[in-house]
Amino acid sequence: MTTTEVRPLTRMRAITTYTIVGTGILVGGLSLILSAGPWWHPALVAPSLIAAIWVVSRWHSPPRLPVLLGALAFAEITWAVAILVGVDVPAAVPVALIGGVIVATRPWSRSLWSLALVALIGATALLSLVSNPDSTLGFVVGSLFYTVLFIATFWLNDIAWKLFTELDAMRASDAELAVVKERMRFAADLHDIQGHTLHVIKLKAAVAARLQHTDPERVAAELAEIERLTGETIDQAQQLVNSTRRLSFASELVNATALMTAAGMEVDVSGGDTRVSANEDLFALVLREGTTNILRHPVARNVSIAITADALTISNDGATGTVRPERGLAALRERVAESGGALEVSHEADAFTLSLTCGRVAA
Fold it and tell me: How far is CA 5 from the centre of its chain?
C-alpha cells in the first residue's frame, strides 16, 4: 500500500498479518513438536519454518519472485531431507506456506502455479517410500492437505483484501462527492443571487450609456438603481457566505449523520431536542462547517455530536499530525462572535473538537 493508506486499511492489514503468522506458527511449529520424535527433528525444520514465517509476514508487499523461489527451494530441500530421516508430515508446512504466498501474489497463471506446487509437494512426499514405505499414503495425503489449505487461505485472503480496498476507495469517493455536492450547492445559490441582478445591472448600464447626452435625469436614476442593486447583491452574497439564511438544524443534523455514516464513520448524537430556537442558524452553520472539515480529511472512525440548549460540540478522532487552520472556521468564528457566541477549536493527540457556545443570539 501507499504511504497515504488510511488507518482502517492499516488496522485490517495488521490483523490479517498477525492471524496468518499465528496460524503458520501454530500449525507448523506446534504440530511439528507434537508429532516429532527426537529433539533434532524440530530443530532440522526450524530454519525453513522461520523463513516461511518471514515470507508470510510480508504477504501484503512480498519480496521479488527470485527471493520467494529461493525460500521455497530452501524449504523444499529441508523437507526432502526431513522425509529421508523420518520427520513427520508437518515438516511440509514451510513449503506449503511459502507456496501459498507465491500463488496469491501472482497476478496471472495462479492455477498453473497451484498445480505446480501440488505436483512438487506430492512428488516429494513419495520420498517416504525410501524411509518409511508403510506411511507413504499418509505423507502424500497429509502434505497435499497442508498445501491445498494454505493455497486456498492465501488466495481467498488476497481476494478479500482487494475487495476491502475497493470498498474503502468507494467510501473515500463518497466523502469527496459529499464535499463536491456542497460546493455545487453553494455555487448554485450564488448564481441564483447574482445571476439575474448582474444581468439587470448590465442592461441599466447600457441604457445609461446610451442616454448620457440626451436625458441626464434618466441616467442619474439608472445609476442610482445600479448602486442600489449592487449594494443588495453584495449584502446577499455576504449573507450566503455567512449562511445567515434561515437554516433547519434538524435537517442539517440528519444530513450530516447520513454523510458521515456513508463515509464509514460511527456517529454518536447525544442531546434530546434538536430544536434550538434562536440559536438554530448558528448551530446549523457550525454543524455544516464541522461536517465539511471531517469529510475533507476522511480518516476519522468515530464522531460525536453533543447538543444542549446553548452549546454544540463536534468531536472526531483521526486528526493525526498538525491541523491547519481552515478559512471557513476563521470566518465562522467571526460570525459567531458577532452574534454574541464563542467558537473554540481544540486538537489533542488524534482528537479534534469544535465547540460552539451561544450567548444572546438574534433570531
Answer: 7
